[in-house]
Design goal:
single chain, 96 residues, seven-stranded antiparallel beta sheet, 1 helix
């Protein structure tokens, strides 16, 4: 999980890892499954590496809210927000 304080120290081009990834249907899996709204997330076998692609956006009215743009590969884009920050990590493996 990437916290707001960690997000403030990240710089453009730095690599972070998506530890959890969405799955559509995985009944027989022995992996950790996290229910999140309408989607289900499971522990990735190989974490996706994302690069920081822009500046951290903070909101004045809600101090816990943030948005950090990301890039994956040539054409993939995404973002870390306060709602999905538990999917990402600074390291490529889960800490115990």
């Amino acid at each position: 999980m990437i916290t707001l304080d960690q997000a403030k120290t990240l710089q453009r081009g730095q690599v972070i890892y998506q530890i959890y990834s969405p799955v559509k249907h995985d009944k027989d899996s022995k992996l950790i499954i996290l229910p999140c709204g309408n989607q289900v997330y499971t522990l990735s076998r190989k974490p996706y590496s994302w690069r920081i692609n822009g500046q951290l956006k903070l909101w004045r009215r809600d101090l816990s809210r943030f948005r950090l743009p990301l890039k994956y590969g040539l054409y993939g884009f995404g973002e870390i927000t306060n709602e999905n920050n538990y999917l990402f990590s600074l390291t490529s493996h889960l800490e115990d």
